[in-house]
Specification:
Helix content: 25-40%
Structural class: alpha/beta
Number of helices: 14
Bound molecules: iron/sulfur cluster
Strand content: 25-35%
Radius of gyration: 22 Å
Distance between the termini: 56 Å
Number of strands: 20
Length: about 500
Amino acid sequence: MLPSFFESILALVVKTSTDLPPDVRAAMRLAMNEEPEGTRSAQALAIIGQNIDQAAGGEGAICQDTGMPTFEIKVPVGANQIWMREQIRQGIAEATRRGKLRPNSVDSITGTNSGDNLGPGTPIIHFEQWERGDIEVKLILKGGGCENTNAQYSVPVELPHLGRADRTLDGVKRCILHAVWQAQGKGCSPGAVGVCIGGDRTSGYLHAKEQLFRQLDDINPDPRLAELEASIMSTINTLDIGAMGFGGKVTLIGCKIGALNRLPASFFVSVAYDCWAFRRLGVVLDGTTGAITSWLYRDPANPIIPMLDRAGFARTGREVSLKAPLSADDVRALKVGDVVLISGRMFTGRDAVHSYLMKNPPPVDLSGSVLYHCGPVVVKEEKGWRVTAAGPTTSIREEPYQGEIIKRYGVRAVIGKGGMGAKTLAAMKEQGAVYLNAIGGAAQFYARTIKQVDGVSLLELGTPEAMWHLTVEDFPAIVTMDAHGNSLHKDIEQDSGERLATLGVS
Ligand code: SF4
């Protein structure tokens, strides 16, 4: 029964996690060419480009959050879907064992990570029959940071900065603009959106996600939707949100819109946001062997072109080198916009660690520490642990705890992405601490700055959630919240909101 099916699925999973498809690369290359050299966005995009090349070159995960695997499969009539489903599950578990996927499946009641990416609802597998003898398998890996920025609007609705969105294409446009604006850098911009007009709450989100399987450079066959897509792209890129929400010319690399019929009483606009780490690939399999006969989204005649023709992240000479642990003077000297290079010890800590620290003393001395919001991919080797992917996670989830933890334990720097809120900003001012925005998704780039894993605490929380003790060298990040009460995130959100209000959408 399809002797090569398992190997084909495994190859698809590994390639999807480690090598961005040509259409996404092309869109990111355009974005890189748009940003003037030396700007924050240009530096962020240079790191992203370098990361894409490093991931493909070393077959490492592009981003440490390897997301929710979602398969869309077309099979011949009569194919054994039960057997295929089990093979796919085993392929996912094997890719996780090999460190190509991070263990990402968490029991929603107990918080326990299954460790192999299997569990109720994980992975997501949708089958459809077709009148052909071969099998088509498409896969998207969409991470939590961008998933959390998805939005669904029940129209008519009043939107900040945009006014009322009615049940018209103008109303739809307002909803999409609002969804992208509110994502700012939290979903690792520049990103792409899949949109569904109509459907019900469930089918709307599903159809929106399905739009992300379209090529970024295709043209919508419905001219009304094609016009809307083009109009969103040209409008959103005037908001100056930019890469990682640092301010810049390119905020969105794709907008794909579909429509479903709706109930007369309902009008939903569902928006699925995907980040620049737009991991989506597909294969066609021989219907009798399961062997790969062709790849989708990749033309074998066109070899993959590296993103960068130079070294990547280039220093300007203005970077501030810091050696952790940090003093109050070290951090009070920093201001929003400074690029820092951190060396020394840092500790990882995300949701579970923050929850633990609110109730228990820290397992290590955190005074002067650098706390990295990161759930790395870590593999155990003979000589100890090795981090294979280690980009930042979305920091705003820790907003309810962060200020208290900074003040209670003397943390001097928090590294993450997307910024934090007013409570944390106030605690940073009071305590003398800064927020450093690392480049979201740059998991391979940052893994290479980790020179050693010195230890681990709270491993019982699972590898992504544990507190890893790392020695880093020249870890680059941008000061986006300083110890004087300034926040780049607050400024960009306010400025882009004002621009949104003056657009006069129609
Ligand atoms: S690039 Fe950012 S949003 Fe995308 S999966 Fe990685 S951390 Fe999440």
